[in-house]
Design brief:
alpha+beta; 3 helices
Amino acid sequence: MTAPPRPRRVATTLRVRYAETDPMGVVYHSHYLVWCDVARTEFLRQLGHAYAELERGGLLLAVTEAWIRFLAPARYDDLVRVDAWLERVQSRAVRFAYEIARIEPAPTALLARAATTLVALDPEYRPRTLPSGLLRRLRDATSTPA
């Protein structure tokens, strides 16, 4: 029996800015969600769907759930990588998963795991289905090997 294909991952690299740290020199927890947003936006862009264009076309994606498990601290000037992939795609919602890791300075360390669920809305903030072309690409991305 063969293992199911791994979801397609998109990696985004960020440098921790001083403004993202708290008085203890550790990245403040809310910034991890911002990093997830950056990675998710890049994931969509690499699928051929810039988020700004989706909004201009009448699709809004609202976060309805966010989860983070912190494993190690990130600090000022660390280079971090945020991997994003799709865990689940439904006609009106998607669930992204993330791993955030320090890649500089060595040694590499997994800093956090996270997930967000987003629901599709129309410009009046009513639930709607995802556009068929986007839905097809999202579903294809869940089964494309990394």
